[in-house]
Amino acid sequence: MEMKNITLRFGGVKAITDISFNIREGEIRAIIGPNGAGKSSMLNVISGFYIPQEGEVWYKGAPRPQMKPYEVAQQGIARTFQNIALFEGMSVLDNVMTGRLNHMKTGIFAQALWKGKAEKEEEANREQVEKVIDFLEIQHIRKTPVSRLPYGLKKRVELARALAAEPSLLLLDEPMAGMNVEEKEDMSRFILDVNDEFGTTIALIEHDMGVVMDLSDRVVVMDYGKKIGDGTPDEVRSNQDVIDAYLGVAHD
Ligand SMILES: Nc1ncnc2c1ncn2[C@@H]1O[C@H](COP(=O)(O)OP(=O)(O)OP(=O)(O)O)[C@@H](O)[C@H]1O
Predict the structure, then answer these.
(1) 75-88 pLDDT per residue, tens
(2) NAD: is it a keyword of this entry (predicted)?
(3) Distance 103 CA to ligand 1 centre (A)
């Protein structure tokens, strides 16, 4: 995926100014930056939730036309949210199942006409869901309503739902926010395993520098809507603009 000269405005506020960067197939790419830098806005541009006023999003080698978020999802892009967005009253299993909605092609009428086809689809959906539930080690809570789960597990269920969609690009908005050290370690391991095992490309926003530097292949750094750094964790760590931004050095 390639972001080319993206500019995004909200009225008079420029959230993103002329930013370009790419996400290579199979990599873990982090977007970092101080509060209000424009990271969530950028993730929303990637997911098709915001349409930038300027610039182009290229996906799989071609410019992506203006699309609705569900159409972007159908192209294999799934995401999790900064604030957990699960159905609290529903079980873990049912929540993860909602991740398959994009794969449910057989409508109600078709189901009535071709029962066999619908059954096959249902089976494939169940299989993928069970695979993800096993992979993320949440079998023991599959029947539990999400509202009863501790925070760290809710975040894992959100990851499970996104993975159930079998995305080729997975967007994670602060996957470790609010977690304790142990939960962060678990989540890091799962993210690395997902990348390894399924070959899923991952773009994530994360505030915990230790986590970002350990997980990512490459990092984009934003500050005040601009890109100030882009490279491997080591390159970014030694970039003077990045150091200044994080130490809060005044802008000219
Ligand atoms: N829907 C919106 N309407 C108006 N302004 C917005 C909107 N979303 C973001 N902004 C503004 O755009 C800028 C970038 O915000 P954004 O949330 O993308 O930053 P961020 O880096 O994700 O911040 P944080 O780390 O605090 O989540 C901020 O000045 C913010 O106030």
Answers:
(1) 999 999 877 789 99
(2) no
(3) 32
